[in-house]
Amino acid sequence: MRILLLALLLASVAFSRPMPAYEEAQIAYFSFNSCDARDDSGQGSFGILEGNVRCWCGVEDEGLLFDGETAYLTFQGLVNNYFSTSDFTISFYFKPEMRSAFPISLLSKRGDCGEDFLLDILLDYSRQEITTLVQQSEHRYYGNLSPEPREGGWQHFALVREGTRARTYVNGIPQRESFRCSGVDISNETPLSFGNSPCVQTGRARRFRGVLDELRVFDRALTDEEILDLYRRHPIENAQMDCYS
């Protein structure tokens, strides 16, 4: 009986662990576990799947597989209200299944392929970087933010904007930091999207082929420790590398 009571006590403690503080700042969470783009945070955003998007093995349960040709994802709702001059954090996992001489579109909120008021994240193998553009104009932007991607398989990317600073992370580890004396306004009316940078339409980028999973947006800057904790929920070492196995 004592052993049973002890086991029940330990179980109750395990299930009553407090939610991480950064969860309260989460304004959109797309787990893709239902093979669609519903917002699991309950905050009212939603995604619209376009083209050939399929359900596939994710880093945690299911993810979305994009075909690199017609497939992309557009987000509607509250999630679009947090990309202006305020702090934010973006976190997602991706597994590319293509290489290209052109940049490959990942996450984007950008009206056109020009230089003004934009957020654009692209995988660029020719430069060996995850190109990270957070920019108000040609002369007002966060420079040197683009980290080096990991070779093959899953990787976790995070972007943090905190006042006059911006930081990028790969697999929970800080990679680049940029500082400006004044802020950067990236406001625009274009919805957030994945695989659909306007530079795809101009021929300067390609759509993503591979898997996307666990996309989160927060309305504040997460700390280094919080980014690492977020990554440790689903370390890439535990991900299925082959959906057929």
Kindly describe this structure.
- It is a single chain.
- This protein is mostly beta strands and 245 residues long.
- It has a single domain, classed as Sandwich (Jelly Rolls), CATH 2.60.120.
- It is 11% helix and 38% strand.
- The protein has three helices and 15 strands.
- The strands form two sheets. Strands 1, 3, 4, 6, 11, 12, 13 and 15 form an eight-stranded antiparallel β-sheet that branches. Strands 2-5-14-7-8-9-10 form a seven-stranded antiparallel β-sheet.
- About 5% of the residues have low confidence.
| CATH topology-level name | Jelly Rolls
**So, CATH architecture?**
Sandwich
Q: What does the main sheet amount to?
A: 8 strands, antiparallel
| Low-confidence runs | 4-16
Average pLDDT, rounded to a whole number, is: 93
Structural class: mainly beta
- What order do the SSEs take from the amino end to the carboxyl end, as H and E? HEEEEEEEEEEEEEEHEH
Q: Measured on Cα atoms, how large is the radius of gyration?
A: 18 Å
- Describe the global form: globular
* C-alpha termini separation: 42 Å
- What percent strand? 35-45%
